[in-house]
User: What shape does this take?
Amino acid sequence: MGLSSYLQFLISGVTMGSIYGLTALGFTIIFNTTGIINFAQGEFVMLGGLLSVFFLKWFDAGLPLSIVMAILTTTAIGGAIERFAIRPVRSASVINLIIVTIGVSIFLRGLTVIILGKDTFGLPHFSGSVPLNLAGAAVMPQSIWILVITILLLVLLRLFFTRTIYGKGMLACSYDKKASYLVGIGVNGMILASFFISALVGAIGGAILTPVTMTSYDVGIMLGLKGFSACIIGGLGNPFGAAAGGVILGVLESFGAGFISSAYKDAFAFFILLILLFVKPSGLFGQSKIERV
Amino acid sequence: MKACRYLVLAAVLAVFLSVSSLRAEDVIKIGAILSATGPASPLGEPERNTVQLLQEQINAKGGVIGKKLEIIVYDDESAVDKAVSAADKLLKKDNVVAVVGPTTTPNTLAIEGKFDAAAVPLVSCAAGEKIVVPVKKWVFKTPQSDRLAVARILSHLKAQKISKIAIITVSDAFGQGGREMLKALGPKAGIEIVADEVYSPKDTDTTAQLTKIKSTDAKAIVTWGTPQTGSATVTKNRVQLGITIPLYLSHGVASPKFIELAGSASDGVFLPAGRLIVADEVPAKHPQKALLTKYIKDYETKFKSPVSTFGGHAWDAVMLVVKAIEMGKSDKPADIRANLEKIKGFVGTAGVFNFSAEEHNGLDESAFEMVTINKGDWQIVK
Amino acid sequence: MNGFKKDMLAVLGFTALLFILPGFLSNDYYVNVLTLSLTHAIIAIGLNLLMGYAGQVSLGHAAFYGLGAYTSAILTTTYAFPIPLAMLIGILAAGLVACLIGVPTLKLKGHYLAMATLGFGVIVYIFFNETIGLTGGPSGFTGIPRLHVLGYTFTSDRSYYYLVSLVLAGVVLLSLNIIHSRIGRALRAIHTSETAAQNAGIDVAKYKIFVFVLSALFAGLAGVLYAHNLAFVAPSSFGFNFSVELVTMVVLGGMANVWGAVIGALFLTILPEYLRIFENIEIILYGGILIVFIIFLPEGIAGGLVKLFSMLKPKRDDGAGGK
Assistant: This one.
């Protein structure tokens, strides 16, 4: 296999990896602020894509407007989840929280089936689907969109967390909720905001990915699981690690399918997850502050 | 008093149970196990719709041998355990005389044994060859077998003088069946398989597999799946990667959904298809023409959505059972089974069926047309 | 041992009830539905111990169920092993794998086991699907012999039902015994506070691993029973969806309550058979159950019943209470 094949694997890997990274970022934001792993994160990605399809169909609103509406709707759903399903049990044990978020993810899927149906749908590419040639490998314009938007989001989020007072407040919550509360940070508001932002990030990921991969009510499961693996790869709690973990995962998957076995492609993400959990649970970029029993 | 409450409850239950067993004897009960929900629902839903449509139509015309036809439909949710429960329910509680379905191969294989034990015929809508090979006395199936589809593709490839192909199949029962058949029949037809790639049903991207294929010396790609399980993805990815060698697909993509999802990438691909999907192009004198036209019209009027090949499989299954009942003028399971084996020249949606004691699928290569897509429309390849 | 006597009586009563039940059922369809729910109950009890006492979630328990089922199926069908031996190996295989996963992850605090079992479950499912030569792949594995032991073959549906009832009774008894033993006390201490238990000298990791392996053994046991009953297994029965169903059974029935696990399993296996309208709303219903129960009734149905009865009992002066 020549250079163009390697390059092709790399490009596919980075494209999917960006979305894993965005999903992982969503996990990280909520985890940082609340300590909860939100299993419904994958559904935010699914909704971003699927709702875009429906707004486009039902309201004939044109692609950009449909996507914006879809993202806003999903963001609102994220907030609703926090308010109605998470807040009542926030002080419960870890396992109860895990179960609630699993329940939410299933509920969202079920709601989607009833309202939007079980079918598979696509979105038009943002700027045409004629591939560009890069040293023999084909690059879809949509891949470039995905990469650019992902980097943009990362930069914006970094600025948000380090420069704005709201962002710094959320970081404070992740270090110590009680102390933050004592210095006057509205912890409830921060947590709600973290769900809004995670849903927003997830939905954007879904909307920009759908032209490439199509979407249906159950794409959230695998995307969520792989996004979570990316989180662990990068180190749970580290936003930069999450994004990097996503890209690393996407590339490893792509090369794995290319060189080892395409049948086990989906398993790679979880092999890596298991190995890391056994060997270095704090991930590639995380601090080793995992508590041992 | 608590005792009083329990007595009332028991009485209500007793009435309920006895009433439900007071049914008219002038009814023929057939069962149907279909995957109306779950991953196989794109196949099962049209099947269920078709079964309902047929029940209405048949009863409107006076039923079967003068008796009303009742088709009891259970959704197995694409799950093995639910298919098993449904089979139990139909055989032991509802006491049906024949069963149509299930939609998928694993579900069919899981319940086959029960029909032998209960001596009730099963006419499956699933594609797997294992269902009827080796032949089982009480089990039949209506979809064209993968063997025929693959044979059709291979003969087209040979006609194009192509001797090296790459295959990429989905890792579910349908894809698995196609893959096994390709690997078995390819060499015999003198065609070498230089790449054997697999992808999972929910895979959103097959560029890795296709990149591998691109680097081989394959002169054509054969892919086995359905529109919802990656065939559209493979089709699109092929165009995106700039691959120009011809693409052949399975009969599983013979539905409008494929063109919808694959868009312009679907132009120029080849597939073997039952005539249902190209009914407009079927010549007026062809035995299937009238039937296909009528089924399409009835289905699309009632359900406001286009027909699918899979709904056709259910049509064939139900009508075959009805035919067997009419032939023997008997609704006893053993007679239905015996008469199914005697059916010859039955015009169905998938083709013309000819059954026998050794042949429980009843179709041959003439059931398929080689079809291509031209600017979003199906076209028979001459 | 008053507790032990009470448990014995309860289990005997339960078994007797199960044995006379078929007499009231008009046909074997109902019996088969029950057999399946009792099989699920066996898994649910193990998972219940894990979730309720060790405070850990397994999101991949269907994989252990599948490991038991496939191992026994393949050994008996392809390699002609005697059935009881194959079943034993199947059960132990599940336990062994649980050991391999549990030992590294249960040393960590928090939800790492949940993640590991999630990944593990997916890998096992893909393995069942792809190793076609061994497992038959997506179309499934046929031809598994019906259980026969000591010369008796369990061909009829009813005989299998009685067998599974007995096994379930045994599992219930074993679990109740564990809970009331020293192990159970240690587990309850861990459940209340891991740090406190650790400081009291309890090797928390060891107990968590014990419960995890035990729950996998139960799942493997259910798996071998399932395989030799159905005579067929397919990967689709052992995926993430079923793992979530199992968790829902435990939550619904009540964590940290063996009878709760049985109730949850019976409920979620039998109810869909009656509510055939379930179809499209089934997904949303499972999600709804999980959310609502965790928020409003985290002790599940069993816990709720226990609370109800204790409220109805006349108050005692000595302030007796507790489990």
Summary: Confidence is low (pLDDT under 50) at residues 1-6, 16-22 of chain B. The first strand of chain B starts at residue 27 and ends at 34.
